[in-house]
Amino acid sequence: MPRLLRFVDFALLFASAASLITGLVFAALGKSTVSQALWLAGTVPVLLALSVSIIQALRRREAGVDVLALLAIAFALTLGEFLTAAVIALMLASGRALENYAQERARREMTALLSHAPRHANRFEAGEWRRVELDVVSPGDRLLVRSGEFVPVDGTLAGLAELDESSLTGESNPQQRSPGAAVRSGVINVGAAFEMVASASAHDSTFAGIVRMVQAAQQERSPAARLADRYALLFVPAALVLAGGSWLVTGDAVRALAVLVVATPCPLLLAVPVAIASGMSVCAKRGVLVKGGGALERLAQATALFFDKTGTLTSGQARLVEVESAPGMSSDAVLQFAGSLAQASAHVISEGVTTAARERNLALRAPSHVVEQPGAGVAGNVDGREVAIGSFAYVSSVATPAPWTTTFLQRVAYEGASAVFVSVDSKMVGAIRMADQIRLETPRALRLLRQEGIRRLVMLTGDRRDVAETVGAALGVTEVRPEQTPEDKLAAIQAARREGTVIMVGDGVNDAPALASADVGVAMGARGAAASSEAADVVLLVDRLDRLVEALRVARRTRRIAVQSVVAGMALSFAAMAVAAFGYLPPLLGAMLQELIDVAAIASALRALRIRSTAVTGVLAHGDVDRLKAAHVELGPVMEQIRGLADELPRLPKASVAGALASMNESLARQLVPHEQHDDTEVYPDLARLVGGEDPMAAMSGMHREIFRIARLLRQMTADVPPEGPDAQSVREFQRLLYGLDAIVRLHCAQEDELFHALGESP
């Protein structure tokens, strides 16, 4: 049906344009009867289509600017002003076609967004596994879910399973489920293949239920009145009163027609679609797909923003946070052993460990005799050493737990992170903390959204309360609502819409109902779930949250340009209507004048194409950004050494303190201090020119000076340590400086990474 309607609109445009031009040719040849017939033939189809759309709008209890166009065309035909009617018909058809073109252009950007939804299942039949259509699966069927596949229907596990449930629950870490546990459709198997028994058909499963919620939410959401329709509430009655009044006072129907002709609301019919289409084009160039003009208009009016956590505020992938190493073992050695063995595993956490080791430029060895226990860990031989990595329970079964593991596990639990423990030759040598980290652009994006007038920032997530509140506190959001189901998110959006225009941002299947219900649903489409992209009004095709800021700015400026164009066009139309009401403007001349008014309104609306992004992008090449970030990764071992020494200092023998501090000072002098000096003298001047302002890097440079001060103070204090070692008060002072240095360096690197990311080219 949408395709048929688009065809009809463009056919009407072609017919009206062809009949008008051909009629003018015959009129020039003196064949007025033929020209009038042509103009009538081109006008009647537009009149009929316009009548149908008005009737449909009235059934929906909507009124718009089309009423004036209908009256003007019908009145012109009644009075025999066929050329005037043809001109009005062409203007109307061009407006409808233009708006449809803008929406179709947005639709063409979309791919098969539901291609990842479960469509098939592997069912056990006649002694073998057969691929069957999802619709034929029944409760009680025995199914096989291979690694990387979506769970097709709800069911019960027949064996151990490792599942990525983030699309449904928002929990970023893979979850291990035991035999007999319930499993829901739409989650991904990230471990070994497992068997399950279906407990529901596809129609009654979780994924299908969410799809039905999306459809219901879309039907219940009443569309906001279009910008042109809102102005029509003023313009239409005024034009009708003026036309009727001139006819009533003078008795001249032609004068009333002239008023209606210049009152034909083409500034509304054309200027608004032109501005909106231009704004949508600007958004598309920045990687933001807006599916319709209505979505762009609603985006411009938004005052509240709701968003999911995993994959939206955070990256959705496990990244290295810290490496805990046992005494006598360096963090690099722990990561090197773990990364070497992890190469043999396809587990998502193993891939993260290997990536982290490579980012630190560690030489990885090829493992041998690898044995993997799905969902638990991996064991093998690395350089002749027996290495095991995995969960605490798995590694504890082959190595004696170390004293530091209790505190480490508590810290991991507080932050909702994942822990990979490492043993070498049956000795637990360290652990690696992995977590779904906040996106680099997220803090800046939220700050800019507040500047753009978003007063309410609410995080809706299926994560645990402690994890959600930690992220919320770090970002300074207005509200945090943890442990949210799809139904909870939907209810929250529906309640918020009663207070104003609401944006919802998400990327998972569980976000789809809320996205469909929100005034503007925004999906992280670069890596997000297909269902969320399908339900959303706006899709961020580039995996960056700050693109939403640019879309919001473009939407608001586009709306402002559209309003200016409409007001200017209406003012000119009112002036022409007044002239026509006094009899100084005949209908045909009025139609020509109206064309000039339309051109002026359209030219004004086209200013939306010149909207420029205020974000600073494309000023640092990918290579420069990667190089600057890589330098911070290389500082990772130094930061871990600072933190580790601060923790260990009170337990060290007094005679060993001076040596440990000297080693620390050597690392600072060899790596940290030269790095910061290079940034201050070589990198910051270039960044300052890109950022702009008198001294934009002053605060960042001030942190450099504090790092230099603490490093120098540590060196001086170490030189004064007596041979027998420092006293308790000196140890506490060393700890204070080390903890302070650790906090400053980590914060400083995080701020620089955010700046590099903001200044970098878009992927």
Automatic annotation (TrEMBL):
SUPFAM superfamilies with a match to the protein in the record: Calcium ATPase, transduction domain A, Calcium ATPase, transmembrane domain M, HAD-like
Q: Where is the P-type ATPase A domain?
A: 116-215
Coiled-coil regions listed:
none
For this protein, the record's Pfam families field holds: E1-E2_ATPase, Hemerythrin, Hydrolase
Query: What is the annotated localization of this protein?
Result: Cell membrane; Membrane
User: From what superkingdom does this record's organism come?
Assistant: Bacteria
Q: Which Gene3D superfamilies match?
A: Calcium-transporting ATPase, cytoplasmic domain N, Calcium-transporting ATPase, cytoplasmic transduction domain A, HAD superfamily/HAD-like, nmb1532 protein domain like
The EC number of this protein is: 7.2.2.12
| InterPro entries given in the database record | ATPase_P-typ_cyto_dom_N (IPR023299), ATPase_P-typ_P_site (IPR018303), ATPase_P-typ_TM_dom_sf (IPR023298), ATPase_P-typ_transduc_dom_A_sf (IPR008250), ATPase_P-type_domA (IPR059000), Cation_Transport_ATPase_IB (IPR051014), HAD-like_sf (IPR036412), HAD_sf (IPR023214)
GO CC, sorted alphabetically, is: plasma membrane
What molecular function does GO assign, one term?
ATP hydrolysis activity
Q: Which UniProt keywords apply?
A: ATP-binding, Cell membrane, Membrane, Metal-binding, Nucleotide-binding, Translocase, Transmembrane, Transmembrane helix
Q: Carries keyword Transmembrane helix?
A: yes
Q: Which reaction does it catalyse?
A: Zn(2+)(in) + ATP + H2O = Zn(2+)(out) + ADP + phosphate + H(+)
**Membrane spanning stretches:** 12-30, 37-55, 67-93, 231-250, 256-276, 561-585
Q: Which residues form the Hemerythrin-like domain?
A: 625-757
NCBIfam families in the record? ATPase-IB_hvy, ATPase_P-type
Similarity comment: family membership? Belongs to the cation transport ATPase (P-type) (TC 3.A.3) family. Type IB subfamily.
| Name this polypeptide is given | P-type Zn(2+) transporter
Q: Which organism is it from?
A: Trinickia violacea
